[in-house]
Amino acid sequence: MAVIGIDLGTTNSLAAYWKDGRAELIRDENGAVLLPSVVGYVEDEGFVVGEAAKERLLTHAGDTAASFKCFMGTAREYTLGGKTCTPMELSAMVLERIRKNAAFYLQEEIEEAVITVPAYFNDRQRSDTKKAAQIAGLKVERLINEPSAAALACRMQCGEEDQTLLVFDFGGGTLDLSYVECFDNVIEIIAVAGDNHLGGDDIDRAVVQYFCRENGLEEEGLSVGEQAAVRKLAEQSKCGLSTQSEVRMEVELGGRLCRAVLNEDILFEICMPLFAKIKQLFIHILEDADSRISQIDDLVMVGGSSKLQVVKRFLTELLGKEPVVLGDTDRVVAMGAGAYAGIRQRGEEIRDMLLTDVCPFTLGIGVTNRNHRDKNILSPMIERNATLPMSVRNRFVTTGDYQKEISVKIYQGEEYYADDNIFLGEVRIDVVPKPAGQAWIEVQFTYDINGILHVAVENELAQQKQILLANQTLSEAELERYRKEMEQIMLPPIQKPENQRMLARFIEYFENSVGERRERVAEMIDQITAGLCSGRKKEIRNAEEMALHWLEQMEREEDIQEILLFDGALKGDWLE
Ligand code: AMP
């Protein structure tokens, strides 16, 4: 049973495994390594994942979901083909496809996976990622932060000496920065910073605005279809600039041909507001790491948006030297995840590697605000960027006279007012009734490397209450329900009952035939099976049509054979 590493991306997902001292990417049956993280519903076929779904994004937008990773851990729902799906369920479909691809590629069952998540994913988002893996039939012992995976990949590829890295992971919807120190076999994440809503999509939006401006158009004035067409053109033109110095944009809108020219200088100019935000994140992480830009040995560029020359240009100006690009920026995180799979499998060359991580957000409890009684404030227990595992114990006193109970509300986030942060849970405990400030409780937060937060609260009488938070998994019953649903909607064409019945008929013909006819039937079974397993819509449909046609043909042949055998006596008469 193999362990694989998965980069479950916003735009594309990839998997890798550890082989002969290095991480290798896993390919699907067509040789592709990138699986678009897109799910669609196709009438009469059910749910499709990957390229087949991506092709339908424009034509069947209502029945196709993309970029759902951005909404992981939220209440957002998608309705595809009448079925309501959460981002967790959609991610489960992507993971299921990855598991199957990997099992096919490696020719063994995949038992465990290491999945990467953005460093800024909160506990709900992490829990939902784990649950999605559970639904997809994968055991996930550990989620690792994407930039940590990138640092590991970088270290495996080019690091022997002590070095300080800054991993710049710029994807479709997110930007993650990690300040990493590497020495001997240790990769220590010192600080992380990022923005969950800053990525290539924002650059596309800036290009759309530029295109509209150039053509005297208001984006809101365009129809939904026109907006989608301009957005697509914007992304294509942006990507075109990673290989060409100038791109001509052209699209017909409302019967008018609209045009604009996009080149590096224009793109640099229109990305300025985004670069200003990125610069702020650099300041933030350098402060948190108590460092300066000159102390960074290498800045490693990761993620699809790192392919943009303008981003490289901006970073070169900021850094005073060229950043490092490790091959294909799309693949670095997956390679790191594959290397981590090697650590889990205790691979010879990598088992002693130690990857430490940090808590990317502050964890704390709400305490009374003396000046504003109904607006509690956050009292941090574990501060962001604390190295994991971490345990902290603090004492809190009552604020009300003869108070009988204290409610300890647990939050995650950086906001001043408790309720502006993410509420994680609550523990209630009795206290000895005394004048305000005299009764006390002690609160202990323990946050481990797997992102599990254990909160224990103890009163003066040594009575204890505790709660285990975060990274919850599905109960057996929930899992069973999700698995069943998934099996129904994601049945591969070869396993659909009607196709199974059809193949059984061919097998019957095979068993009842001899010689040339038997060979012909074997050939038919082979072709139909190949078509049904191809994963390509057109070939699946061809195989189904071909099978029906051959069945009819063989039934006819059988009838003729019977008529010949019984000297022209009618089959029906004879049966009676
Ligand atoms: P990721 O989330 O890492 O897969 O990155 C996806 C983002 O990378 C999307 O915004 C893409 O438009 C962008 N991207 C992909 N390829 C290129 C390219 N060749 N040049 C510029 N941006 C790209």
List keywords for this structure.
576 residues, alpha+beta, Nucleotidyltransferase, domain 5, Actin, Chain A, domain 4, Substrate Binding Domain Of DNAk, Chain A, domain 1, 6-stranded mixed beta sheet, 37% helix, globular, disordered C terminus, binds adenosine monophosphate
Question: Would you write up a description of this structure?
Answer:
By secondary structure, the chain is α+β, with helices and mostly antiparallel strands. It has four domains: 2-198 and 273-357, 2-Layer Sandwich (Nucleotidyltransferase, domain 5); 200-272, ATPase, substrate binding domain, subdomain 4 (Actin, Chain A, domain 4); 359-486, Substrate Binding Domain Of DNAk, Chain A, domain 1, CATH 2.60.34.10; 495-570, no CATH class. It has 15 helices and 27 strands. The strands form seven sheets. Strands 1, 2, 3, 4, 10 and 11 form a six-stranded mixed β-sheet that branches. The chain is globular and about 110 Å long. 40% of the residues are buried. Adenosine monophosphate binds next to helix 5 and helix 6.
